[in-house]
Amino acid sequence: MTIKILNIELNTSFVEKKSKSLEANQPIIDFQLQNSEIIDLIILDIKVEEPQILIGQEGQTLFELERILKIILNKKLQKSFYLKLDINDYKKRKIEYLKKIANELADQVFLTKEKKALPPMPAYERRIIHMELAQRQDVVTGSQGEGINRSVVISSR
Questions:
Q1: pTM of the model
Q2: What is the structure's pLDDT at 80?
Q3: CATH class of 3-88
Q4: For domain 92-156, is the CATH number 3.30.1370.50?
């Protein structure tokens, strides 16, 4: 597996300078991949001073930026690859938080033998919960609900 990692740090002066390039349809960040380069995964780790604008509520803006960027790059490069976009380690911290909550609730379920339901969350977050708790022998996970109301339920074995 070939991985291309791009660590990008944006500061206010950089963004101010580059905002003029946006008006002229010039890219803020540009990178080239050689045609012979076989890339399976591109990791974009961006550091900014005010991440909330790019992350959005519950990470929704970040998720959509990643999706749009993947579509654009797939079309431009005409290659299939995975893209991981993170801003100020938001996704990394979110994954750690979800795993912590999952294990805390699993411990409660094991002690009380009562089912616990997490709040509704996107599919990629539910997947993290399912994968984390799949390693445990004392609890089992399932999903309930439809669409944006779908959530993970933790039960005792």
A1: 0.73
A2: 76
A3: alpha beta
A4: yes
